[in-house]
Write a structure and sequence with these properties.
With 265 residues, this protein is of the alpha/beta class. It has ten helices and eleven strands. The longest helix is centred in the first third of the chain and has 16 residues.
Length: 265
Amino acid sequence: MLGIENFRNFALQNMMQVEQILSEVYSGITAGQTGFAMFDGGAHKAYHTLRMLDLPGCEKVHAVEADPFMAETFGKAIAPHSEKIKGRLAFHQAALQDDPKTKRIAWKSSPSHVGRSSIVSANAERDTIWGDNPDMEYRDAMTVPATTIDQILENEQLPVPFIKTDLEGADLIALKGAAATLAKHRPVVAFENSLHSPKVHGFTIDEMIEYFADLGYVGMNFVGETLTKENWFGFFEAWLTPTNHVEELRAHLHSSLAKREVAFA
């Protein structure tokens, strides 16, 4: 099996392949299951929301999008499918973070890079993962509603086998607000894995590894290697899995990668 550096080089030239692998993995994880819900955090243009809704056995998708302008785009993407998904989509327009007492939060909305809008942290030196990127343009300062994954799913009676987050560096903070969900539902998690996230949001990787270990979770990269402090940031997307499902996730990843071996030649 190829190493993470080879996969990274491949992914940078084939970005949609990453999303397709993600889709293949959660399709494999849920195969044969019935009556479950999925969670799409940072739903953007509804790419994964629609694929989740198409999964056999999926009765509901919780889709979360904080940016008000992207939420409009999401709505337009969903509209043609309204009859097919009627009653099965729960849309939450809010920013995911870790404090259940926080009801609104500072937000940077970008018209130039709509997928890079994000929470504004309290770190004056670097308040988003994009820092002072000269290519980025932002709208006027705003706040948006805030919530946690646990608050969204606290009354969800269906099992939740999979969570995806794409939160422009706020993913691990959001997952700190998901302890009850991880303990109850034991989902596999796919998350955006930004090198700048610890500095922006004020945590260490040691703290996050301990947090997930206490919940019986382990990190994994896109080629199935266990994540440690030393290799955590080898790629900008990663996985978390309950320790008793490590081999299952690894098998799904290896199956998806095997279809693409020619791309690494």
